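TA notes, week 10

Several of you asked for a full example with nothing omitted. So below is the full record: structure tokens for the whole chain, then the designed sequence directly under it. When grading your own attempts, check the secondary structure regions first.
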């Protein structure tokens, strides 16, 4: 895996990436607190510990580029530019949320930002990204599509079918595997035959790379190379980012399948702390201010979301069918 550089990175890039990671973490911590207090209901899947991947990848994308994501997709949507107040309103089931309060945590979408949607079905987001890339080719656009998925999705047929088709048609798509070492509760050495997910790229004749997913600068560099390659018409890439989720598969997961020592070891590799560690004192102070600003911004988003109206009962049948031609 690529290691953290010992030299300080460019100031503006550092601040931008740090801010994105802070927003994601504070958003998810706030959502977790709301669930624990009974203000939210249903399942909540958090990506705390994995923020560097969303921040690093989405930083090299434009508003016109597409992303598709999973049940653990808050971070990707935020990093792609989704408003955290409307994201929070959606989770709270409010009418002003991105999907009118209908999607909850696992199905947020904002096509205007290129967010084609989160998807609770494992592996289902991958061919959707393929469709976005195909559409860009047909329309003569330079848009790139990125599919985010976990290591568990690699066992799904959609993963292999999508890689094969993308390679055959040289589609502008980047496959991003967030390998957090567990498919729900199953460790990767039980469910994956290869030692790395990136190794599957060889079978389809496309580039594959394994990167330290907690090193946001390494993530950014790898994503930039893959996106540039796709945008230039050279076809797809498979990026495997090794990372770890600090929380369970879902909030309330008893986590009997892993040890406290394992979790503690990975918490030492906090992506926010790793980025801060390679900065000078002046920039470190600035990052502390950014962290405080993000915390306050999320607090305001929560209060705004709580104050929003519930959907009207009569709106239940809206958006079910398209208008007749």
């Amino acid at each position: 895996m690529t290691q953290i550089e010992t030299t300080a990175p460019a100031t503006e890039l550092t601040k931008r990436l740090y801010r994105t990671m802070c927003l994601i973490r504070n958003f998810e911590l706030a959502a977790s607190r709301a669930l624990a207090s009974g203000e939210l209901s249903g399942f909540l899947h958090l990506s705390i510990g994995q923020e560097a991947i969303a921040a690093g990848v989405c930083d090299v994308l434009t508003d016109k580029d597409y992303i598709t994501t999973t049940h653990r997709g808050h971070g990707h949507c935020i990093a792609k530019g989704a408003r955290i107040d409307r994201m929070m309103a959606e989770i709270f089931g409010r009418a002003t949320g991105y999907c009118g309060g209908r999607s909850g945590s696992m199905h947020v979408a904002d096509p205007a930002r290129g967010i084609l949607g989160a998807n609770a079905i494992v592996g289902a987001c991958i061919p959707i990204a393929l469709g976005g890339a195909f559409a860009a080719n047909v329309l003569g656009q330079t848009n790139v599509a990125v599919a985010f998925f976990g290591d568990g999705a690699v066992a799904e047929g959609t993963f292999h079918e999508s890689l094969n088709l993308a390679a055959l048609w040289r589609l502008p798509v980047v496959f991003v595997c967030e390998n957090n070492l567990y498919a729900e509760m199953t460790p990767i050495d039980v469910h994956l035959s290869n030692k790395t997910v990136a190794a599957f790229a060889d079978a389809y004749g496309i580039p594959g790379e394994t990167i330290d997913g907690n090193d946001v600068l390494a993530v950014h560099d790898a994503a930039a190379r893959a996106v540039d390659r796709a945008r230039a018409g050279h076809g797809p890439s498979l990026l495997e980012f090794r990372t770890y989720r600090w929380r369970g598969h879902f909030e309330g997961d008893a986590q009997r399948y892993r040890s406290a020592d394992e979790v503690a070891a990975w918490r030492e590799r906090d992506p926010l702390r790793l980025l801060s560690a390679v900065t000078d004192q002046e920039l470190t102070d600035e990052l502390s201010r950014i962290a405080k600003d993000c915390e306050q911004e999320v607090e305001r988003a929560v209060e705004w979301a709580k104050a929003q109206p519930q959907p009207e009962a009569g709106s239940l049948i809206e958006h079910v069918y398209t208008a007749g031609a």
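The chain has a mean pLDDT of 94. Use that as a sanity check on your answer.
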